[in-house]
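Exercise 3.2. Students should predict the tertiary structure of the chain below and write it as structure tokens, then compare their answer with the key that follows.

Predict this chain's 3D structure.
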Amino acid sequence: MKNFRCLLYLFSCLSFLCCGNEILIPQFQKVDLKLDGIPKESFWDKSGKITDFRKFRNPSEKTSGTDVRICMDNTNLYIGLTCEEPKGIFTGNPNGSAWAGDNVEIFLASLKNGDWYRQIVIGLNGKRYQEFISENQYQSKVHLEEKKWSAEIVVPLKSLGKFSSDSLRFNMLRYRKNAREFSSWQNIFWAHDADKFGHLIIIKPEEEVTHGPWTFGITDSCAGINWETSGKIKTAFSFRKKGEKIFRKKTAEPGKTKYHSVFLKGLLPDTEYEYQTGNGTVYSFRTLAPGNADFSFTVTTDIHGRSGMLKKILKNPHVQQSDMIFLLGDMMSAIIGRYSCYEGFLDTIAENWKKPFYCIRGNHEYRGAGANVFFDLFSPLERKSYGAFSHKGIFFLFLDTDGDVKESSSYMKNQKEWLCNVVKSKEFLKAKFRILLVHKPLMLPSQGGGTELKKLFDALSEKEKRLFDLSLSGHTHHYSKTIPGIKTLYAKHKTKNGMSPVLSLAFPVMTNDLGGFFLAEKKSSYLLVKVFDETGKIIDEIKLTEKQ
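Answer key:
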């Protein structure tokens, strides 16, 4: 997922889709274009986009069917056009001027750096016209279809006058003979009114978003957003409640960095917010809801850097319909650094999942020279992998225990004190269901498997332990479950991890199948947990009712 950022218009509510009289255009390091008149290369999808055309001298009447893409590199400005023509293309007399049939007029100008303009006319009869630029100084190619035509235009930067990143002006006029329609991007009276042209805001290569953005720590009142850029720049971030017209700037730390992180507090519950990371692209997230309502969530584990496996899970129709997803550890076999996490799972999440997700540490996230990067990615402020929140009647509590490298005693002590307090909170006690999420299951009391978890959980009173309704885990790489009061441990495959049913627990404990996932559907009076294997087939399910 690669997008682009701009530092110049922090208060702008633009996206790469044109809005008003400004459009953000990326400056790529290098554009690889096959000039065939068909803007099909992938860089066009990441370019500035204009579709908001209106009738010439009549801006109240919108027109449709015109799509303009604009970008640049260090050498050229690139313009791609796709023009629908349901009434049929009129090419005009091939011996006539460029205006003899359907045509477009492209204007480029700057009023700050020498007051210059350029005009290029592309006619569908094969003719061209230009002013203040010679015909051999630019290239164009047109492609005709039955009810659509397209074009690509390459304008060398050296053929333009001087301009800065915010001084380049642009407008385009389109004439459709059969439709008797003349349209313009900007509201102008004369075609050469350069002071009324729109603005092209250039986004420099170092401002490219190379990873993200992704959210972390979303609750009913808070949300964090992280992303990375290709170069060191100042963090630019603005947000608004969906439906508001104005974006609010979020003050960032001074200095330049590639790694950007903001944390928002005081948000409204169950509310959709839109945000920009400086590049003009509008992203969104929704805060959690404290009230009781139906929803569903997904849990998966033990990806171990197999991003293809994760993508398959995320693309499952059942998962796509769920409201949030939990990644319960061992997403990596070891963390060499943040880029190994991008490649192993995080880029896949950012590209294929637009809803809240939560990632906790497994034992493998403790491994590797870059293990502490985990907190940079998912908990840059508190630097911990345990926590809790409520959503629509479920209290989720996740713990961080039993890493392959021992955590500091102060970290574990703080987690223990936090756990003992959180189970006494009104939010925990009033929840319809209480779910414990942890990488290693409580069915591993020996062989070093869950020693720290058992110590942590045993810090609770027996009454507090009985309040939990369910525990979901991974680690074993195969599906298993224990049911309170039943002496048999159910496992899909023969266990090699010393697991045993824990009869004293008052709630089921379930471990995830490798490549599979849990899908939990919360209804007003029950919780239904469906178990999916690596093929996407349901292999088990369990139904829980609210404890009295």
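Discussion points: The chain is about 10% helix and 35% strand. Residues 28-203 form a domain with the Immunoglobulin-like fold (CATH 2.60.40.1190).
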